[in-house]
Amino acid sequence: MKTQVGERFSEFFDKWICQLDDYLQQLLRVSKESSSEGELQVLVSKLTSHYKEFYTVKWAAAHEDVLAFYCPVWLSKLENACSWLTGWKPSMMFRLVESMRTTRVPGPGLAELTEEQVRKIEQLRVKIKLEEEKVEREMERQQVAMADRKMVELVRMASRIRNGEVVGQVDGLVEVALKGALAGLERVMKAADCVRLKTLKGVLDVLNPSQSVDFLAGTCMVQIQLRQWGQKGPTLAELPLQQQCSFLRHVNQVL
Predict the structure, then answer these.
(1) pTM of the model
(2) CA distance 218 to 239
(3) Which three-class secondary structure state does DSSP give residue 106?
(4) 50-62 per-residue burial string, b: 16 or more CB within 10 A, e: under 16
(5) What confidence tens digit (pLDDT) does each residue in 171-194 have?
């Protein structure tokens, strides 16, 4: 069942993913052309701004109804199954980089990483892994808090008292407790999103403009293709057969 926040964000997300697909076509086109570094950087900046817009809108909506993002109605079951704390898992990006180096899909840029770039990406991977674990521990703390002594006592009281002024008092205490729990879930969501943004920025900082175009094209392809699979099954017909096979291998490696 969609809440008002869910309905609004669903509309936004549909438009956002359509714009992402438009950007993907631009990325694929410029990766095959002899574009200047300046032109490539402009497109990279457009993509990063597009992602920032997503999180700005997400955070504003989540402040109204954070639970809508833990059970998002705008995503398919497949997309939800691949989700980590309301979004993509940051460490997935490093698997994506590695698979793109091997498959050269959607372009050869990441196959040409220097030893220094590989070293920096590995350092970033280790750092991000630690931050992921920190967020996961906080989520575990929030989940365990739902079963602490005060919450259990409130549940007991609410189940035993069904009339009179005491009911209002208990309901008020329950509301305060739930607000605290929801605030905790919102903090976890934002912390996870910050790790996602830090990962994206960290990888792009290591890559040159041409490599960044290929990397962003790869991330867009994975997100859009998962959505298409989840909604109506595989649709890779627009890619040449060789790229279809390579793309399928590289998605399997990432997931």
Answers:
(1) 0.86
(2) 13
(3) coil
(4) bbeebbeebeebb
(5) 677 788 889 999 999 999 999 999
